[in-house]
Amino acid sequence: xxxxxxxxKVNVGSGNPVKVRATENVLGLIYGNVEVRGVEVESGVPDQxxxxxxxxxxxxxxxxxxxxxxxxxxxxxxxxxxxxxTITGFVDLQWCAIYDGEHITLGVSAGFEYPPMVVEExxxxxxxxxxxxxLTGVDELGRKRGAVSFLSGGLLDRTGNTEQCxxxxxxxxxxxxxxxxK
Length: 182
What we know:
The chain has seven helices and five strands, in the order E-H-E-H-E-E-E-H-H-H-H-H.
């Protein structure tokens, strides 16, 4: 008897290997056999989002725009968010939007604060990635271990941080009856 192998096709609205790997890691644990591929799409927000609305909109746009020939699409967007009582006034959070053609579910990662000089440069119009590349001497740090790895002394890398937001966005899908999903 021939066995049928089921696998889920998932598109990630980015060519960033960290975002693709994090999505594959989390959805592989949940669904087993997944095919995850990166699809370059426009976020529709500035390259360096600032604020909740802009960052979430970027993640949602990426998820919706990547939805083609797949069961789920994923959009991940990192941005600075105003947070009182922090040294710089800002915390970096990654938002994940997961789209199934009907519903969007959202999740967010643990946040961390960039050094003041990084935030100052970003607020002056530069991208975090460019500033962190200069600070660390690592080209395309955000496509590798990430700023969070550098700043945490390697205790958490960008893949792990990104996995957090993907998993949080999956919670309603893992409990569909509790969230009114099909």
